[in-house]
Amino acid sequence: MDQNSATSSPSWTLLFVLPNLALRGPEEGKVPDLTLDLDQLAIVSSDDGRVRALSEQAPAARTLLGAFRDELSNPIRPAVLIGREDWLTTNGGDPEPIIAYRNAVAITNVLLTRARGVRGSHMGSSCADTFDFHPAQLTKGGDQIFVHTLPLTHFGVPPKKFSVSTDAGLSRLPPSPIPDDRLTFMLSRAWRLRYIHKRDIQFTRALFRSLEIAYHAVSLHFKNYGSLHEAGLTAALWVSAIEILAAPHKAKHNVGIADVRSLLARYHWSDQHLANRRYRVVTRREKGKVKQRESVNLVQKCYHYLYEARSKFLHGDRVSARLLLPFGPRPAPPILDLASTVYRTALVAYLDKRWPRDELPLLERVLGGTFTDPWYTRHLLRAVNPDPDVDLD
């Protein structure tokens, strides 16, 4: 199918506008569409032929897409999430699969950018806010614009007066040029499993609920100017996203840190330092004295510190910035910097339960391979060696 043809079939509908995401036009070196290897939905540039066709048919769409300005009032071309009309009709207007799709696309991009750290920060957005939906949408008939948030629903915005700006706290960045290949491979299959084939509902329910919380965890937290307690809330979100994946669904007890350690232990590290080296962590204290220690690997140790931070922040204990710097001051990374890779480890381990790599055909193992895995290895190794001897440039 020619994606730049105005007569492309099947028909597509404009669902959401993503003004903070830069998918540049052809003359600027267009970033490939974000499809998650799916046929039902796509995030594309507003220069895409399908979007241009929609704009020609619906003046309100043209008004909406032309209304966006940056913080200096310069016009911008927003990215657009579009959906196939035949699938949307079958879907019955349920927004859950659309949100799940957006969350999965964001996670496959942002986690890798964070793992690449300083060297890769210019290669894509490191926060999920880049993928946020703007509340301005088209009505079902495409003839009006409405702005919908929880406290406000406003229909029929006068086209000549309608103008909106991007978030001044964000730089408009493109997605990572190399999304996480392994996550893309498995999340695409999980999305089809839940929203097309309606199977493995419990498995995929936990998965996409976890992704939704992770989307918030990986967002820009600056409502309180990045205060210490705001950082503690981020730790709580990461722990919750991981615990959902580790929860023993058929057991009668609640998820605990042992369940998370068990899930993290399933991940296969090719780097021997991560696979075999053991660390001691304190798991029980009484009256200030150490009563119990356990042996863990590095990613489990990182989660231990993340869990401790979450507990102290949420239970009103005395806290300080040192709680978020368990590996020492910079250049060692803060625990919230490492949290995204700890989450990615849990996520892949969870998905491996359904699609074990050693059971996949060779071609699928290559297509859903580990081309991006070394960046996560390097990211974790920075905890014990701020400049690990892994040259990926």
In brief:
With 393 residues, this protein is an alpha+beta fold. It has helices at residues 49-57, 59-65, 85-91, 96-120, 181-195, 201-217, 228-246, 257-265, 272-276, 298-314, 335-352, 362-367, 373-381; strands at 12-18, 41-45, 68-69, 79-84, 136-138, 145-148, 153-155, 164-165, 279-286, 289-296.
Descriptive keywords:
single chain, 393 residues, alpha+beta, three-stranded antiparallel β-sheet, 12% strand, disordered N terminus
Topology:
Blueprint: E1 12-18, E2 41-45, H1 49-57, H2 59-65, E3 68-69, E4 79-84, H3 85-91, H4 96-120, E5 136-138, E6 145-148, E7 153-155, E8 164-165, H5 181-195, H6 201-217, H7 228-246, H8 257-265, H9 272-276, E9 279-286, E10 289-296, H10 298-314, H11 335-352, H12 362-367, H13 373-381
Parallel strand pairs: 3-8
Antiparallel strand pairs: 1-4, 2-4, 5-6, 6-7, 9-10
Helix pairs in contact: 1-2, 4-5, 4-6, 4-11, 4-13, 5-6, 6-7, 7-8, 7-10, 7-11, 8-10, 8-11, 10-11
Fold and architecture overview:
With 393 residues, the protein is α+β, with helices and mostly antiparallel strands. The two termini are 36 Å apart. A hairpin with a 4-residue loop joins strand 6 and strand 7 (153-155). The chain has helices at residues 49-57, 59-65, 85-91, 96-120, 181-195, 201-217, 228-246, 257-265, 272-276, 298-314, 335-352, 362-367, 373-381, and strands at residues 12-18, 41-45, 68-69, 79-84, 136-138, 145-148, 153-155, 164-165, 279-286, 289-296. The relative contact order is 0.12. Residues 1-8 have low confidence and may be disordered. Helix 5 packs across helix 6, helix 7 packs parallel to helix 11 and helix 10 crosses helix 11. The protein contains 13 helices and 10 strands. It has a 3-stranded antiparallel beta sheet with strand order 1-4-2. It has a 3-stranded antiparallel beta sheet with strand order 5-6-7.
